[in-house]
Design brief:
- The chain is α+β, with helices and mostly antiparallel strands.
- The chain has two domains: 2-45 and 282-409, no CATH class; 54-268, no CATH class.
- The protein has helices at 2-12, 14-46, 62-70, 82-89, 117-121, 148-154, 202-208, 225-228, 250-258, 270-280, 282-313, 315-323, 328-360, 362-369, 379-396, 398-409; strands spanning 54-58, 80-81, 94-106, 109-114, 123-124, 128-129, 132-135, 143-146, 161-162, 165-166, 181-187, 198-201, 212-213, 216-217, 236-237, 239-244, 265-268.
- The strands form four sheets. Strands 1, 3, 4, 7, 8, 9, 10, 11, 12, 16 and 17 form an eleven-stranded mixed beta sheet that branches. A two-stranded antiparallel ribbon has the order 2-15.
- Helix 2 (14-46) packs antiparallel against helix 11 (282-313), helix 2 (14-46) crosses helix 13 (328-360) and helix 13 packs antiparallel against helix 15.
- The longest helix is centred in the first third of the chain and has 33 residues, at 14-46.
- The protein starts with a helix and ends with a helix.
Length: 410
């Protein structure tokens, strides 16, 4: 009976209630969206690299090393000598070492030179292995394995041939067109930069740069096939992912690398560096939450103002309710419940709208930002936001509720 009165009262003022409902829906949509994207972005950051004990690169900042080696953002200040890689990989504490060579691109996507250990030891998320949608790891010097997002955006299939570009610029005019690569494998989606990476062999990376000096092609040199098959070693690489036999040796081996005598190197713990990177982004994160909160608070004021203005128009309704026996607390509860009903309906609409938006924008988000965002919010986060929203709404309903209470007593 009480709920019927509430719904009937809202229906009688459907014009103003509808506008209020729209404002509340948009504000709740914004705050839910910001919280969800914040959580998913943090989760995506944390899951980019797992089960790797150290990331080694030339001596620079830890964040710079993390950005270019893991996220393919920026460029290294210097490379690592190949002999240094061999020394590190043969150390008794090292279980495995993955060499990484960066610097080229294909239609804006980064090219990563590595070896077969990359597909064997690289882990992301909860220690998940890389898996293939189609094809297999590279075997020949001009084989290539591409991430799922590249295959999706450029509509590539197994057997297609691609030309790599020199440098990391999307519109690079310098092409390695004398050496086309053939796609041998397409990886399953991971929600990490792997999805947007072209993987080739280190030997292939070395061959296509014959005749290049300081980023400029001095001469074209078609290397004979017999030389290609005789084995080629790179002169240098960009970074190394290292897995140790024992986690207890992590800090001691890190000190060893940081004091490496052959050349200046830096070893970082990826988990620590990821935390530092996220802390740097916390200002932006908090700013977004603040803006979303202010949008919602303004919507709450709007609901309060609409209900407060309606009290004047509802004097006859309040008197009628008093005549039939409704007490002032009943009138107060009626106004508060109206506020709550509007918020609950707005929350449902905002949740549906957010889910539809995430489904529709999934390809765009992954393609442009490399972040895999779930269509559904984490239950704990969702309930926390909803509880906060309902609490603030009930508080905002106190003013019109008190005005109705006073009106019913007069």
């Amino acid at each position: 009976m009480f709920l019927k009165i509430v719904l009937k009262s809202l229906q009688d003022r459907k014009g103003s209630v509808l506008l209020t409902l729209m404002a509340m829906t948009i504000s709740i949509f914004v705050i839910l969206g910001v919280e969800h994207i914040r959580q998913q972005t943090k989760k995506s950051f944390e899951s980019t690299l797992s089960d790797t004990d150290l990331v080694i690169g030339s001596r620079s900042g830890s964040l710079n090393l993390l950005l270019y080696s893991v996220f393919r953002i920026g460029s290294p200040t210097n490379n690592i000598n190949w002999n240094s890689f061999k020394t590190i990989s043969r150390d008794s504490k090292v279980d495995w070492a993955i060499p990484l060579s960066l610097g080229d691109s294909h239609k804006g996507f980064p090219v990563l030179g590595t070896n077969s250990d990359y597909f064997k030891y690289f882990r992301y998320g909860q220690k998940k292995k890389l898996e293939f949608i189609a094809g297999k790891p590279f075997a020949q010097i001009f084989d290539v394995v591409i991430g799922s997002e590249i295959a999706k955006q450029l509509k590539y299939n197994i057997g297609d041939k691609i030309i790599l570009s020199h440098g990391i610029h999307k519109q690079s005019l310098q092409k390695h067109d004398e050496y086309p690569f053939q796609i041998m494998g397409i990886l399953k989606p991971t929600g990490t930069p792997v999805d947007r990476t072209v993987h080739i062999q280190l030997e292939g990376m070395e061959v296509i740069h014959v005749g290049w000096q300081n980023g400029v092609q001095v001469f074209k040199n078609k290397i004979p096939k017999e030389f290609l098959n005789s084995g080629i070693e790179p002169k240098s690489i960009t970074a190394i992912f290292v897995g140790l036999k024992s986690k207890l040796t992590t800090f001691s081996f890190q000190r060893t690398i940081n004091n490496f005598t052959d050349e200046p190197l830096l070893a970082i713990l990826p988990g620590v560096a990821l935390s530092e990177l996220w802390q740097m982004m916390s200002l932006l994160e908090k700013s977004l939450l603040l803006v979303a909160s202010l949008v919602f608070i303004s919507a709450c004021f709007g609901v309060s103002a609409v209900l407060l203005n309606s009290i004047r128009e509802r004097k006859e309704e309040i008197r009628l309710l008093r005549i039939i026996g409704a007490s002032p607390p009943f009138i107060f509860a009626l106004i508060e419940t109206e506020t709550l009903v509007i918020t609950v309906i707005a929350t449902i609409l905002a949740t549906i709208l957010l889910t539809a938006t995430l489904i529709g924008a999934e390809s765009y988000i992954v393609g442009n930002y490399g972040i895999q965002i779930s269509h559904f919010m984490d239950v704990t986060s969702f309930l926390s936001v909803v509880a906060t929203v309902l609490t603030l709404t009930l508080i905002s309903g106190l003013v019109p509720g008190w005005a109705a209470y006073q009106e019913s007593k007069s």
